[in-house]
Amino acid sequence: MSERDKHLEQLREIVAEVLEMEPEEVADTADFVEEYEADSLRAIEILARIEKTYKVEIPQAELNEMRSLKAVHEVVARYAGWQD
Amino acid sequence: MRLEHAALRALLPHRYPMLLLDRVEDVTPGESLTGVKAVSGCEPCYRGIAEGQPADRYAYPASLLIESFGQGAAVLWLLSRRAGTAGLPMFTAARDVALLRPVHPGDVIRHRVRLEQVVDGAAFASGSSWVGERRVAEFDSMMAVVRAVDAIVEPRDEREEPR
């Protein structure tokens, strides 16, 4: 499994846990708000878990971007310095 | 640092019958808190129960136990913030809470709360509740967000106490 795939799977698990779904139900590009009925509180919870897991700080301004698994991965990669 | 009841009333907007924390025995801002809630048979949650009910009918309600722990977490967060920070914590989510044993009138609950994380106006706490040496509940993640005071507290006229 590539680094990118590994990171994506870890993030998928975090998102699934917060949204109370099975990881395999979280599609890469599905919009959390439109398709999984997430609200701003769930978004903050996802952000908090990511910050704790990867020990990174992500500015709140990025929350608006983090609307799908793929988008979350891109934002986290930028702040965690992943070369994915 | 120890906080008596008056100090808690100055920090929390909750009042009867929803002020569910009696005292804070110890608090280290930014880290942890031990809060006390004594449960008595006079609690409004036991009002109106028919005579002759079994003991488990007097188990302290889980919702109130969780709220009580949450108020401990709120005090911890309030004391951990920079001086002059506005807004009040509003409880938004509890995850992986395990209720291990029932609590009854006469029990004194001790909440051991840890402040795990503060992220963009949201705080996360974890911990456990104890009666004596027995753990009665575990809290993996309690989340609160900060909201403007006037969005939560109705202005109160002290002269008009409800009867």
TrEMBL record, chain A:
Residues 2-80 form the Carrier domain. SUPFAM superfamilies: ACP-like. This is Acyl carrier protein. It comes from the Bacteria. It holds the Pfam family PP-binding. InterPro entries: ACP-like_sf (IPR036736), PP-bd_ACP (IPR009081). Signal peptide: none annotated.
From TrEMBL, chain B:
InterPro entries: FabA_FabZ (IPR013114), HotDog_dom_sf (IPR029069). Keywords: Lyase. Coiled coil: none annotated. The keyword Lyase applies. CDD domains: FabZ. GO terms for molecular function: lyase activity. Belongs to the thioester dehydratase family. FabZ subfamily. This is 3-hydroxyacyl-[acyl-carrier-protein] dehydratase.
